[in-house]
Amino acid sequence: MEPSKIKDMGEAIRRVRKSKGLRLEDLADENISPATISNIERGIAHVNLAKIQYLLEKLDVNMEEIPDILSEQEEESNEIKFNLLTTDVLIDLGNPKDAMTRLDNMKLEDNHPCAAYVQHLKGKAFLSMKKWNRAERCYGLAISLSHQNQNKDNLEATSYLDLSLCFYQQNEIEKALDFVESGLDAFIDGNGRGSIKYTLIRNKVVYLIRLGRNMEALRAIQDIWEEMDKIEDVETVLAFYVARADLLRKTGMIDEAIQYAVKGLELAKTNKDFQNIFHILIVLGRLYTAKGKWQQAENCFNTGLTSQHLLTSETYLTDAYAGYGILLSHQNRKDEAKKMFEKAIINAEKHDNAPKLTYALRVMGDFWKSSGTKLEAIPYYERALEVAQKFHYKQAEYKLYYRLSQCYQDSDQKEFEKCLLNMYKTQKALRGEENEILEDE
Q: Distance between CA 385 and CA 394 in Å, rounded?
């Protein structure tokens, strides 16, 4: 008998046993043990067929009845799956509490085929409510149950994806990256949810960029670029365009970066994706700043900021304010630049975004240092360093120690030497990761 049929048979037997109110122990005797009955119900392939027939006789079920039982079971399963689908939509619509009530009322056992999906949705609801610990526990259960259920519909990979988001939103980027890698390892081609693979890679790129591991992020994008026509989710496609343009900017390939950004902007405009229109305009503003095309850069920043009321997330406003501030600094519009950097810091604080707060504080420090007032820069660098150390952003730490050493070089030899020592220790901890201390972000 095929493994899939054995599993179906096992589910049918479990259904009959439950309907009769019998425990495993109630059916066990000298010919069949509770463990063997459990293996049959779970569809373990090596179970003796004679044992299955014996169990059916004990349950007073004929083999001819199994198709009808399976049909009834499938109908019930489809109804549960539809209820779970609408519950998933309910969470997306911003009603996680109502969704949780529905899920709690389902009362599915762990060996039910939909049990993993229930735990996944509970994790998603808790994630939406920012109840991190509860979300982590539910995703852990979903991963375990999905693995037992042969990772149907790639639910294991999906749960790893959402688990990574749980840690990302807590600014634990290294852990988020680890879970994305686990999701990619768990993903099985042909098992459904094909788009999850590309979402995992997209998030991997984002996390690598946040950690300052830009060359790794660029390689990940280049590896996937030939598959872009397979990606159905336009938002994911746009995210790759944005990331590629910004990474090329950081490596100094400005003209090539502009080409990707413009293509991305056209695609975002066609799909009326205002979030990515805003994001790409900010990237273009930075690119034109790097080329010294002040008017084009300012047009990009102003156009982007004009559309901020259409954003679904305001986290990228930090990038807009910081980028605009850099442009204004180049034009020697110091007061306007300072206000932009202050806005960048306030926005990062408002959204509790540690990577962007680290960056916003750093560029404010750069502003004061470039203005010739190094003492004003030090508090911003030190505060940024505290955030970077708290969340183990080693690349950011290295950049900040470098800047602090510049501030102390002519005024405090002891602090200067301390910064150099910490630069050495941080670089050693990076274990050979790329050293890009002078890029814009």
A: 10
Phi, psi (rounded to 5 degrees) for 247:
-70, -40
Out of 182, 213, 244, a domain closes at 213
201 and 113 within one domain? yes
In 3D space, the residue among 330, 318, 327, 297 whose CA is nearest the CA of residue 362 turns out to be 318
User: Domain containing 33: what range?
Assistant: 3-61
Between vectors from CA 110 to CA 104 and to CA 115, what angle results, nearest 5°? 60
pLDDT tens by residue, 379-407: 999 999 999 999 999 999 999 999 999 99
pTM of the model: 0.80
How many angstroms separate the CA atoms of 249 and 406, rounded? 25
Nearest to 290 by CA among 255, 319, 264, 263: 255
Q: Residues 149, 200: one domain?
A: yes
Q: How many CB atoms lie within 10 A of CB 204?
A: 22
User: Which of 213, 246, 261 is a domain's end point?
Assistant: 213
Digit-coded pLDDT (tens) for 254-280: 999 999 999 999 999 999 999 999 999
